[in-house]
Amino acid sequence: MMLTAEEVRHFRHNGYLVVRHAVPDALLKQTRELVQEHWSPADELSEDGQVKLYRMYERDPGRMHALVAHRGIVEPLRDLLGPNIVYVLNRHNQATVNGPGESRPRLHRDVLQWSRGLVTVIVYLEDATVDNGCTRLVPGSQYLPFFGVPQPEGGGTWMDEHAELRDLADQAVPVPVPAGGILVFDSLVFHSVGLNRSTGTRMSVTAGYRSVDELDATPDATREILVTGELIYRGNDRG
Ligand SMILES: O=C(O)CCC(=O)C(=O)O
Ligand SMILES: [Fe+2]
C-alpha cells in the first residue's frame, strides 16, 4: 500500500484526496513544455472560461504516457481502484490553462452515475492556490442522487441546472495543491475550477482513470490505455 487505510477511507467518504509530490520536477517540466507547444493565448475559452486542449495523448503519446502512467500517479490509484487500471482517452485527456480573470466557474460532475464510475486526476503543472483558481469541490457530493440531463456535447451534470442543489453551491471548498501534486476525486463529486484573481496562469492536466471492466470481453483499445496490471475478463458466459 502506498496510501494509508485512512487516506483510502477519506477518498471514499469525502470523494477526494490530495497527493503531494506525485510527479517529479523533470516530468513536470517536460509536460509544461508540451502544453506550451500546443497552447496559444488566442485559443477559444471553454464553457467555464479556461483554455482546454483535448486529445493530449493522441497529440503526443510518448510524453503523455510518461505522465499518465507515472508511478507517482498510478501507485496511489492502485490502492483506490485495484491492480488493473486504464487511462481513458474519451473523457478529459486534456490540458487546461486557467488564465487570469477568465473562468466562469460552474460546479459539475464529470460522469453521470456511479456504476459507470470514473476517477478524475488533476495534475498541477503550476502551484494551484486560492488566489489563482485552485479546484473547488463539495466534499461527499458523490453520494447525491442521480441528476441526469446529459449535456449536448457529452460530459457531466451542471449543479446550477438543478434547483434542488442550489443551496449546496455555498458548500464548495477550495483545494490548493502545489505544483507536482495531484488531486484525485470520484468523478461524481461536484467540482469546478476556481476564479483566477492572480496575474499568472494555473496550468494543469486532467486525466480520467477507471478499473479494468471485468465484464467487458472486448475492451476498446482506441479509447483506453492500460497503465498497470492486465485486461482481465471474468464474465461467466464462457461455458
Ligand atoms: O481545472 C480544474 O480545476 C477543474 C477542471 C474540470 O472540472 C474539468 O475539466 O472537468
Ligand atoms: Fe470537471
SSE layout:
Elements: H1 5-14, E1 16-19, H2 25-38, E2 51-53, H3 56-59, H4 61-68, H5 71-81, E3 85-88, E4 94-98, E5 108-109, E6 119-124, E7 136-137, E8 157-158, E9 173-174, E10 182-186, E11 191-192, E12 202-211, E13 224-228
Antiparallel strand pairs: 1-10, 2-4, 3-12, 3-13, 4-12, 5-8, 6-10, 6-12, 7-9, 7-11
Helix pairs in contact: 2-4
The structure holds 2-oxoglutaric acid and fe (ii) ion (FE2).
The count of helical stretches stands at 5
CATH architecture: Sandwich
Q: Estimate nothing, just give the exact number of structural domains.
A: 1
Q: CATH fold name, please?
A: Jelly Rolls
Q: Summarize the main sheet.
A: 8 strands, antiparallel
Key terms:
239 residues, Jelly Rolls, oxidoreductase, binds fe (ii) ion, eight-stranded antiparallel sheet, binds 2-oxoglutaric acid
What report would you give on this structure?
The protein has helices spanning 5-14, 25-38, 56-59, 61-68, 71-81; strands spanning 16-19, 51-53, 85-88, 94-98, 108-109, 119-124, 136-137, 157-158, 173-174, 182-186, 191-192, 202-211, 224-228. The chain is built from five helices and 13 strands. Helix content is 20%, strand content 22%. α2 (25-38) packs across α4. The longest helix has 14 residues, at 25-38. Strands 1, 2, 3, 4, 6, 10, 12 and 13 form an eight-stranded antiparallel β-sheet that branches. Strands 9-7-11 form a three-stranded antiparallel β-sheet, with no helix packed on it. It is globular and about 60 Å long. The protein has a single domain, classed as q2cbj1_9rhob like domain (Jelly Rolls, Sandwich). With 239 residues, it is of the alpha+beta class. Bound molecules: 2-oxoglutaric acid and fe (ii) ion.
